[in-house]
Amino acid sequence: MSSSRQIERTAAAWLAQRDGGRWSERDQARLEAWLSASTAHRVAFLRLESAWQQSDRLKALGAGLPAGTLPERGQWAPSPFLGSREPASETTRAASALSASRTPRRSGRMGRYFGAAAALVLAVSSVGLWHHLTAVEQTSYQSGLGELRLIPLADGSRATLSSDSRILVSMSRSERRIDLQQGEAFFDVAKDPGRPFVVAAGARRAVAVGTHYAVRRDAANLRVVVTEGTVRLETDSAPDQHPQPTTLLPAGSVALASRNGVLVRSGSVEEAEQQLNWRSGFLAFHDTPLADAAAEFNRYNARKIVIGDAETAAMRVGGNFRWSNVDVFVRLLEQGFPVRAEYRDDRIVLRSQ
Questions:
Q1: pLDDT tens across 262-306, in order?
Q2: Average pLDDT, stretch 66-71?
Q3: Interstrand relation of 158-161 and 149-152 (parallel, antiparallel or unpaired)
Q4: Top-level class of domain 281-352
Q5: Strand, coil or helix: what is 153?
Q6: In sequence order, what DSSP letters do the residues of 291-314 get, joined into one string?
Q7: b/e string for 53-64 if b means 16 or more Cβ within 10 A?
Q8: Most buried of 15, 31, 137, 320 (most Cβ within 10 A)?
Q9: Is 2.80.10.50 the CATH number for 139-269?
Q10: Whole-structure pTM over 0.85, yes or no?
């Protein structure tokens, strides 16, 4: 019984001859007889045929052609080993020369046959490498508490991670996907119309092609802030529910998505940018409940602000504050509001006076 290598080379020679353009009914009958002779023949032929189709005629098959040129259909000469009636093409002779440097010289006919077979086997190997290089490549990134991290991505985009955030980046030929597992990130997306940029968090996805936007994940809620371009917000539906509508978010939009739906606030780009002042080390509050302001500070600091009663929680604050300076924020509260602070090692408790 022929070895697997011999079977593979014979299958490659059949493909080379068929691709040469001079393919007769007699040739087809001989091929079918060879395929019927053994399951191994059929498996080898189908595998090589699939690889040949997927490889898009890899440049490895264009030996002897100008750089950057792929061989046109028909440039493969029919193999003399299978009864070719035409001399080998330049492409096949180049492949034969490559083969001859690795295998003992036999006859001219055998050399050309092994050249065609070796070239196609090389194509199969290259396809395996090609699939390896273009398969989904995953990389995870995270930032520590109180740390901002700028991450250049493989596609030319950039991600800025806010404090205590984590993403999983998956790059493929068809899609650029970011799984926001925790926290918040701002994305400066490189334009690539053929590969959507998808930021996923649970059942929701913020999709763009080339734009600037931030996505924040808080338990079951999601916030999307768009400062350039347009983002498409999608939501997966449960099997027993109607499809959820898609929301288009132009620049200046701030979308809050929760279990109750999606609330969109439209404004200027400058207003949207204020939601992202954390990139410069600041937090901006505008008539914000003190409980919410304290929660924002707690995202960046190990020493937490604890609200001691409902009256204190409902107080409204405004202004820009450095998120790294909790003590200054609390002292200003004590000066301007009926609030007293209890300082402890791991927290600051605020109570109404």
A1: 999 999 999 999 999 999 999 999 999 999 999 999 999 999 999
A2: 48
A3: antiparallel
A4: alpha beta
A5: coil
A6: HHHHHHHHTT-SSEEEE-SHHHHH
A7: eebebbbbbbbb
A8: 15
A9: no
A10: no
